[in-house]
């Protein structure tokens, strides 16, 4: 696998699960963004979606940043495109304003500025790193010195408790956590139990009051539910 090939690399995927415990796991924050593989080298930098679509044109500020920090060095990176809200928390709704916009205006770019959060490296200088264990890939990633206002290498944590990390994510209003086996290799396109994701979900209790009949493809079934809920005083 090489950046020079110009072919998109399918990212490795995590399995849904409870946060694990034990020394064999590293923990990363789960970002509420768009997964993207980046390729750099003799050709212009490119960004590829999880499905292999070229999404480069939607995020010119990230392409400029990749050019600035790598200067045509051949790499394949894995990460998440994130747009932060005014509170500094990743906002998917803000990011959606940029997705599928092929020529974002300067105003749109300023209103919904994006950053590439890189958490893995799959190729460096034409040599695949996918067979290296997680910790060695993280070390190789750190040695690339990618820090830039539009590119971040978020931290990973070792020797911590999974449930505790999940509470830290909850406190900081993040999407959740991802636990990764420290000995795991990178498996392109595979959903592996070596990576476990635990998202945080907002839950509430509701009362089913009725339903609206479905139409179109849902004809003959339930279109939507009518729900009720108690307010802070306990009244419905």
Structure description:
This protein is an alpha+beta fold. It folds into two domains: 3-199, 2-Layer Sandwich (D-amino Acid Aminotransferase, Chain A, domain 1), CATH 3.30.470.30; 205-236, no CATH class. The protein is 18% helix and 31% strand. It has helices at residues 60-70, 92-96, 106-111, 134-143, 162-171, and strands spanning 13-16, 25-30, 34-40, 46-49, 75-82, 115-124, 127-128, 151-152, 157-158, 176-181, 191-199, 207-213, 222-228. It is globular and about 60 Å long.
Layout: helices, strands, pairs:
Blueprint: E1 13-16, E2 25-30, E3 34-40, E4 46-49, H1 60-70, E5 75-82, H2 92-96, H3 106-111, E6 115-124, E7 127-128, H4 134-143, E8 151-152, E9 157-158, H5 162-171, E10 176-181, E11 191-199, E12 207-213, E13 222-228
Parallel strand pairs: 1-11, 6-8
Antiparallel strand pairs: 2-9, 2-10, 3-4, 3-5, 5-6, 6-7, 10-11, 12-13
> Quick one: CATH superfamily of the largest domain?
DNA ligase/mRNA capping enzyme
Number of helices: 5
Class computed from helices, strands and strand pairing: alpha+beta
| Mean of residue pLDDT values | 90
| Helicity level | 10-25%
Q: Output the helix-strand order.
A: EEEEHEHHEEHEEHEEEE
What name does the CATH topology of the largest domain carry?
A: D-amino Acid Aminotransferase, Chain A, domain 1
Query: Which spans have pLDDT < 50 for at least 5 consecutive residues?
Result: none
The N- and C-terminal alpha carbons lie at a distance of 58 Å
Sheet-strand content, in percent, reads 25-35%
Quick one: CATH class of the largest domain? Answer: Alpha Beta
Q: What overall geometry do the principal axes of the alpha carbons give?
A: globular
Integer count of domains: 2
Calculate Rg over CA atoms.
20 Å
Number of strand segments: 13
Shape-level CATH architecture of the largest domain:
2-Layer Sandwich
